[in-house]
């Protein structure tokens, strides 16, 4: 998986969220709740990408103090292989 594929997966997931929200009207767009939900969706896609690559690296939203080795692994996940 490369960065472009990950970005496409996030866009797809956010489009699915928007389609659902347009039908249900559950969360008003442009609100803090809406932006938080988008962040959760993006984190879920990142978790799926990690599972597909058989790696685990804490996401920014769950990241606390990391060891230097964990920080290196985290950076490697963010620098997904180029196309």
Q: Provide a count of the helices.
A: 3
What's the total number of strands?
0
Helix content: 55-70%
Please state the overall shape, judged from the principal axes of the Cα atoms: elongated
Query: What profile does the largest beta sheet have?
Result: none
Percent of sequence in beta strands: under 5%
- Mean pLDDT across the residues is 87
Task: Extract low-pLDDT stretches.
Answer: none
Radius of gyration: 15 Å
Helix vs. strand class: mainly alpha
Explain the layout of strands and helices.
Layout (H helix, E strand, L loop, with lengths): L2 H22 L7 H22 L14 H11 L5
Helix pairs in contact: 1-2
Question: What attributes does this structure have?
Answer:
mainly alpha; single chain; 83 residues; 0% strand; 3 helices; 66% helix
In short:
With 83 residues, the chain is mostly helical.
Question: In words, what does this structure look like?
Answer:
The structure is a single chain. The chain is mainly α and about 80 residues long. The chain has one domain. The chain has helices at about 5-25, 30-55, 70-80. The radius of gyration is 15 Å and the shape is elongated. About 0% of the residues are buried. The model has no long low-confidence stretch (mean pLDDT about 85).
